[in-house]
Task: inverse folding
């Protein structure tokens, strides 16, 4: 940066990723094969397979984004990597969302916690 | 309160189960809590039947007729406790095994009841109270927002943003003071949660989520403790 003819160090440090996202995505085929083998996944036809592969790639990107937002955990390929978040919610979760505590619900006694 | 506590080390937790392609998490959360309470009452660890709840429990929330336990289409742990209290108890897993399918005929046999509920209650949203109730009364049935669990592999999950709308029923079995997070070399206090997606998911079927983070993912909002009838082991 040149200020009044004087060259100074740029106070803004450029930060770039050491790994290239595209390079990581190159071996997606291999990762999907490993995923299918590990979780014994089979699909009824090629169209279904291709669709699941697209979902898998999207989930891998999602996992990478989540890794940045949840750095103390490890996010990546799981048994749910070939289902969309909507399918995941519909097929694997089952808590009724309308829950409200009834008025007569018994409250647990307050316990001492100081000792 | 101890800084670390884990009911698995005290023999109150059955092996991780797998709900399969069925929205029956609520039944696994409820049976897990009763398995722990039954252990505390009898010193006997018995795996209890989720399928009984799926087939036979259609209890509705007293204030919301649309919130009824309905097998793979969802349910509530407190409704399940209410059903178990009224019907007399739950059978063993081996006597009423899990199929992961609903709309089957109820095959509950009163003569084969293995565990009975004496009472249940909801725990204050205060994290110290949750920890105290866990230590005193056994594993707790809790609800959580499971969005981040789809991609979870291990470590202590502590997302910067997580909705408090709960959509998944799980079992709180313990807590720790310093969970090692391999990516950031960071320690965090955490809850230990038993899930029902098999042992290949997460940390051998378990999930760690940070404590002291203002009800992260709604973990503090819907916490239930159950007590079992004291019976002599047969």
Result:
């Amino acid at each position: 940066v040149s200020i009044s003819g004087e060259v100074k160090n740029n106070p803004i440090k450029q930060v770039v990723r050491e790994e290239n996202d595209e390079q990581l995505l190159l071996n997606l085929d291999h990762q999907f094969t490993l995923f299918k083998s590990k979780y014994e996944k089979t699909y009824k036809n090629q169209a279904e397979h291709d669709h699941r592969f697209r979902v898998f790639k999207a989930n891998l990107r999602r996992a990478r984004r989540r890794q940045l937002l949840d750095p103390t955990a490890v996010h990546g390929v799981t048994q749910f990597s070939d289902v969309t978040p909507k399918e995941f919610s519909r097929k694997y979760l089952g808590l009724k969302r309308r829950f409200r505590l009834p008025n007569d619900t018994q409250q647990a006694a307050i316990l001492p916690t100081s000792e | 309160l101890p800084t670390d506590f884990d009911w698995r080390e005290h023999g109150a937790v059955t092996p991780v189960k797998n709900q399969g392609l069925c929205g029956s998490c609520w039944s696994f959360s409820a049976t897990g809590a009763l398995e722990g309470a039954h252990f505390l009452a009898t010193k006997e660890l018995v795996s209890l039947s989720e399928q009984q709840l799926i087939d036979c429990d259609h209890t509705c929330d007293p204030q919301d007729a649309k919130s009824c336990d309905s097998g793979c289409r969802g349910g509530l742990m407190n409704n399940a406790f209410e059903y178990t209290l009224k019907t007399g108890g739950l059978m063993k897993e081996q006597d009423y095994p899990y199929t992961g399918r609903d709309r089957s005929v109820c095959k509950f046999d009163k003569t084969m009841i293995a565990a009975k509920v004496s009472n249940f209650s909801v725990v204050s949203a205060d994290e110290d109270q949750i920890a105290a109730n866990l230590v005193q009364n056994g594993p707790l049935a809790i609800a959580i927002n499971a969005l981040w669990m789809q991609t979870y592999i291990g470590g202590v999950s502590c997302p910067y943003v997580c909705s408090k709308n709960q959509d998944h029923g799980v079992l709180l079995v313990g807590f720790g003071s310093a969970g090692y997070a391999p990516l950031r070399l960071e320690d965090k206090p955490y809850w230990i949660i038993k899930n029902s997606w098999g042992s290949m998911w997460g940390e051998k079927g378990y999930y760690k989520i940070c404590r002291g983070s203002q009800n992260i993912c709604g973990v503090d909002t819907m916490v239930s403790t159950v007590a079992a009838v004291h019976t002599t082991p047969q």
